[in-house]
Design goal:
The chain has 20 helices and four strands. Helix content is about 80%, strand content about 0%. The model is unreliable at about 710-730 (pLDDT under 50). The chain is mainly α. The chain has helices spanning about 5-25, 35-70, 85-115, 120-160, 170-215, 225-260, 275-295, 305-330, 345-370, 375-385, 390-400, 405-435, 440-460, 465-510, 520-560, 570-585, 590-605, 615-650, 665-705, 715-744, and strands at about 335-340, 340-345, 655, 660. The protein has one domain. The radius of gyration is 26 Å and the shape is globular. α1 (about 5-25) packs parallel to α7. A hairpin with a 2-residue loop joins β3 (about 655) and β4.
């Protein structure tokens, strides 16, 4: 029965096989005329230039971090130097996940433009298939990587050691080493997300301020020197960055559930591995159902509802995963299980998975309401644009803050519900259920930047209005799906962080986090502050890089005669270089905050306070980071998305106080200002919040054995009872010795 473990990497390979077939189909599509191909070539070269520059810096980081992990792995009993190898594999897989998305997006963009010359249906097929390649690549690599490494480490630390107790030291070491894979994935994801976000928004803001506001030319006008960098940015931020981001989330969610699963006291189902294998199998199963869900994403004609088609595909994959989870859970798990004193059944676990799927779906629905065109929140920003730039900003901030209420309530209800059924394992398996359809979620998310690039190429190539009209339909929907994808990501991050937090508590050997202790309460406040300083650094980086971009665009308009008359070509590569250098330079400090703060607190405060351990202080810090980071992520993602679609509303035409307002009007100019403010919110700092909270939790989990109280480690309920009995015997023996001494 234990052979089912080999099904996990097989499911990953199936996903990668389908990905390869769809990638080949996209590559065979027509690419259009010479002008379109020239523009697409500029975008592809700029995207690869960024990746090469980023990978060069991250290679140095990965090697140094790997050496430190290998050294630290020799220092404690239940750690191992091979964690360094797992870290490097995770880093490479995360980078490859980003490359897969980048490669297909820069192929699919021009092919979508060409398809839009035929029909909306064909354009959706090409752009969504491109997004599907990315989704299947990320999910397939995650399932293959986690499944294969677990098999290797299981054989190395458990089978070869002759261990029979799945809760013993050998299994703890195997999963603790697997945490290195997640650490590598999340580390690269953070730098990719922050770096990509700085790149794309520096180019976008610079292009908007000089092109649209000062020169009065369209957004993707070929005369704008920053427009190629802007289109490159869509790929490096919303495609490569998002791919690495959700790859890390996927892996961290599976890992958190496995860490808690190996503590469960249960019958010998699948050699006692059932609670550990379940999250991997759910992920693999969700990958297959995501493939099926993509088949439902179709529109018949020009009047087809693209959003409805995407929703149908999404809901299909969610429902199929929920239905198939029931027989899998009932077959695999024993009749009763116990985790840290909480007893539950297979049905409780299934209900927790269902709760996770419902929470993920509700988060997407709520986010769509707050960010979609035509809905109340976006319309309120549109109306407030009529009275100027300041009221537009006020309206957007208010919408972003309001948008945190319902998601937080849904998230809190989901945590309570999943915990009430299956304890901490229920919370973690709920997150695994939510992330099961990541391939579908990412396909929906990634199609947006492809459509955006397609529209840019159509504009710059001077194609007919009907072509740009079709790409605009896809782009408007893509903007909403990007926002819902970020809402989905932050919700899963909250559940995953809670599960990782529980795993850290067990590994560090602490029973609780006592807020009555001053150092712990202080750490809580410091943790809550970190998302603010992290966001500030990311947003400031965008502002600094955007200023450089604005000056370069102004210089070219002034010094290169004939640009505005189409007689001379702008120096696109100069703007690409500015964004590349700025993003690589500015991503380092925010990334180091996430990596180093847990290490400084964990080791720097070890033994400083007699009444509280550094592990407990670090726990307080993680609690603050998680709560503050989740709310900041929701606020920034939704405010930015709402501002963006408020601006797009004017491009279609909206009625304000009985008068139709269009592009170029004063209210439209106010909406451009709001969109410019919202850009770094939704594409740089906001999406980075979910990686920040997970990465800090994973770093804490990795260092937990080194700062553990009384050895730390994982203890089953049976082991705890044995320890208690042993202590009682020792106390009785001491009392007996005292009595004998007195009698003598």
């Amino acid at each position: 029965m234990e052979q089912i473990i080999y099904a996990v990497p097989v499911l990953g390979l199936i996903g990668l096989g389908v990905m390869a077939a769809k990638s080949a189909w996209v590559s065979k599509q027509e690419t259009g005329d010479a002008t379109m191909n020239e523009l697409a070539d500029h975008i592809a070269k700029g995207a690869m230039a960024f990746l090469k520059a980023e990978w060069k810096v991250l290679t140095y980081f990965a090697i140094i971090a790997g050496i430190l992990l290998a050294f630290s792995g020799t220092m404690v009993e239940n750690s191992h130097p091979i964690i360094a190898l797992a870290f490097l594999i995770g880093a490479v897989f995360s980078a490859v996940a980003g490359y897969i998305g980048m490669n297909i997006a820069t192929k699919a963009n021009v092919r979508t433009t060409q398809a839009a010359r035929t029909s909306l249906s064909k354009a959706l097929d090409v752009s969504f298939t491109g997004g599907t390649v990315m989704g299947l690549g990320v999910a397939g690599l995650a399932v293959l990587g986690v499944g294969s490494l677990f098999i290797v480490f299981y054989q190395m630390f458990f089978v070869s050691a002759g261990a029979t107790d799945v809760t013993g030291m050998e299994m703890s070491t195997a999963i603790e080493v697997l945490a290195g894979f997640s650490l590598g994935a999340e580390s690269i994801a953070l730098f990719a997300r922050v770096g990509g976000g700085i790149y794309t928004k520096a180019a976008d803001v610079g292009a908007d301020l000089v092109g649209k506001v000062e020169a009065g030319i369209p957004e993707d006008d070929v005369r704008n020197p920053a427009t190629i960098a802007d289109n490159v940015g869509d790929n490096v931020g919303d495609v490569a960055g998002m791919g690495a981001d959700l790859f890390g989330s996927y892996v961290a969610t599976i890992l958190a559930t496995m860490v808690l699963g190996q503590e469960i006291k249960s019958a010998d189902n699948f050699g006692g591995l059932a609670p550990i294998l379940l999250p991997m199998l759910i992920a693999g199963m969700g990958l297959i159902f995501s493939i099926i869900g993509t088949m439902f994403v179709k529109v018949k004609d020009e009047n087809g509802d693209v959003q409805q088609a995407l929703n149908l595909g999404n809901w299909s994959s969610i429902v199929l995963t929920a239905v198939a989870s029931y027989p899998l859970v009932m077959w695999m798990l024993p009749e009763t299980m116990v985790l840290r004193g909480f007893e539950f059944t297979p049905m409780d676990v299934f209900i927790s998975i269902f709760v996770g799927l419902v929470v993920g779906a509700l988060m997407s629905i709520i986010t769509e309401y707050y960010t979609a065109m035509g809905k109340g929140p976006v319309n309120s920003i549109v109306q407030q644009s009529s009275t100027g730039h300041a009221t537009n900003i006020i309206g957007g901030l208010a919408v972003g803050m309001k948008s945190t209420v319902m998601p937080t309530i849904v998230l809190a209800a989901g945590i309570i519900a999943s915990y009430s059924f299956a304890g901490l394992y229920g919370v973690s398996i709920a997150a695994a259920g939510m992330m099961a359809t990541t391939a579908m979620q990412l396909a929906i998310d990634a199609f947006g930047p492809i459509a955006d690039n397609a529209g840019g190429i159509a504009e710059m190539s001077g194609l007919p209005e009907e072509v740009r009209g079709r790409t605009d339909v896809l782009d408007a929907v893509g903007n909403t799906t990007a926002a819902t994808g970020k809402g989905f990501a932050i919700a899963s991050a909250a559940l995953t962080a809670l599960a990782l937090f529980a795993a850290f508590v067990g590994m560090a050997g602490i029973d609780s986090i006592d807020l009555y202790k001053a150092p712990v309460l202080s750490a809580l406040f410091v943790g809550a502050m970190i998302p603010f300083i992290f966001s500030a650094l990311a947003i400031a980086a965008v502002g600094t890089a955007a200023m450089d971009m604005v000056q370069e665009v102004r210089r070219q308009f002034k010094e290169i005669p004939g640009i505005m008359e189409y007689k001379a070509k702008p120096e696109y590569e100069k703007c690409v270089e500015i964004s590349t250098q700025a993003s690589i330079r500015e991503m380092i400090v925010p990334g180091l905050i996430a990596l180093l703060v847990p290490i400084v607190v964990g080791f720097g405060l070890n033994g400083v306070f007699e009444s509280v351990s550094s592990a407990e202080i670090l726990g307080g810090l993680l609690a603050g980071v998680t709560v503050s980071g989740v709310l900041m992520g929701m606020f920034q993602n939704n405010a930015g998305g709402a501002w963006d679609n408020a601006k797009k509303s004017f491009e279609k035409g909206v009625e304000i106080n009985g008068k139709m307002e269009y592009k170029g009007s004063e209210p439209h100019k106010a909406s451009v200002t709001g969109d410019t403010v919202g850009d770094p919110f939704k594409d740089t700092s906001g999406p980075s919040m979910n990686i920040l909270i997970k990465l800090m939790s994973i770093v804490s989990l990795v260092i937990a054995p080194h700062i553990a109280v009384d050895g730390g480690g994982h203890h089953s309920d049976a082991e705890l009872l044995k320890e208690q009995d042993s202590k009682k015997i020792e106390i009785k023996a001491e009392k007996a010795d005292d009595v004998i001494s007195e009698l003598r």
